[in-house]
Amino acid sequence: MNTMTLWHISGWEFAALAAAALLVGFSKTAVSGANTVSLAIFAAVLPARASTGVLLPILIVGDVLAVLTYRRHAHWPTLWRLFPAVAAGVVIGTLFLVWADDAVVRTSIGAILLFMAGVTLWRRRKAEAEAGAGDEPDSVATRSGRAKARSYGVLGGFTTMVANAGGPVMSMYLLSAGFRKLGFLGTSAFFFLIVNVTKVPFSVGLGLIDGHSLLLDAALAVFVVPGAFIGKWAVNRINQRLFEQLVIAATIIGGLQLLLR
Q: What pTM did the predictor assign?
């Protein structure tokens, strides 16, 4: 019995999942947050809760490729500051999944993503007159920077646990913290590799990852690789301002998809 029969999906549905997997690779090496479109495709083709378990290993493959590409650009002080808050968010998200249905999950995360996009747009417009941001974020070590890291960390852990939608939340944090393109991609690559691997036992315990889901992952993972190479090629041709606009646009689209689906 093949994987498509196990999941009762058609050839067109598999093609849609393959395209979503390719987009995961692209988002991990080019425009973080774009994989919210992949999240929507997986949830449309597969049962909503089960789709999160299938998507997680695909995301981890993309994370590994992103780390291999941008490992020299990670900002570890930011990562260490985020992890405790993210761990709390993952635990809260796990408890939330025990009782929340798909509609509640989608509405909650969609609203959070749109709120974060709005806050980021407001903050960046306010700071437009300031120039000279470098690869080192200038707000991480301040009291307000620490508070912001904790709040975004909890939200990021929560959203990544319940719907693999932590990318847009963390994108908003990294942009608001002043990261430039390569520092952004390197820091987010390590962040999501560590967080997504940590989520695996929780997902297994919730029954979201099993033998059937891993069979489908094995068939889809090969499509992540060309997406990552396309992203690596494209990111060198995207200037900083366009990069930020694409990240925010992907976040808004992802939030609307979750709210309207």
A: 0.78
